Predict the structure.
Amino acid sequence: MENENNQPKKILSSEQALLVSELTMTYGIEPEEILFFGNDTKPFLTYEATCVLCNSLTMLNSIDIEPVNSNFRDSYVFRCNLLLNDGRTRSAVGVVNANETVDGQSLSEQQITQLGSSRAIRNALKTAGIDLMKLHYASVKGDSPDIPFKSHFATLISQVHALGTEVGLILGDDKSAWYAFIRNRYGVESSSKLTEDQLADFAACLKSFVPSQKNRGVIESEPDFQPIRFAFTNS
């Protein structure tokens, strides 16, 4: 399960370091655009790096990222729209909570945009059933490791439950604080009743409570975001 909470791993395992070397040499992206969290061997790529891999490995016609209105004052929402080569579209949101931090520091407007865009495109690819790492292994090595597929909804459910346990909303069998939080913020009784967009917001909100992040206040005003557009045509 992905466990991305703004605190990337600084010392990589040999397997992670090898993948960084492969990706930088194959696609020309920078090592700092490839992040790992914990022992997960599946990297979290920046928005720009993800677009480069999409251009090389997929038949997407276009990728469009734009900020959208949030129902909550403390969150920033970005929607990624994918146009597939057969004319179908897929979309998903990436959410950043205003209280999230990196190395104990509040996020800048640029960091919010970059993080929200990265989350949005990753989620949109998930809804389209596109796994860039599987495509990479198939392209470079002719095969890919047996990575079980998990739907976007199932991934988000797993992520929020793991974060809920980490921040103390779930204490063993006691989920009273968990259910109270969900009712207060979303007006439903359980996480299974949340939409994918709400789950993305829930995950971002929970990440802001992770103790290691040492939160330092709330971003008071919403930045004047401009849409980020990246389009390409596969020949």
Notes: The chain has a mean pLDDT of 84. The two ends are 35 Å apart (CA to CA).
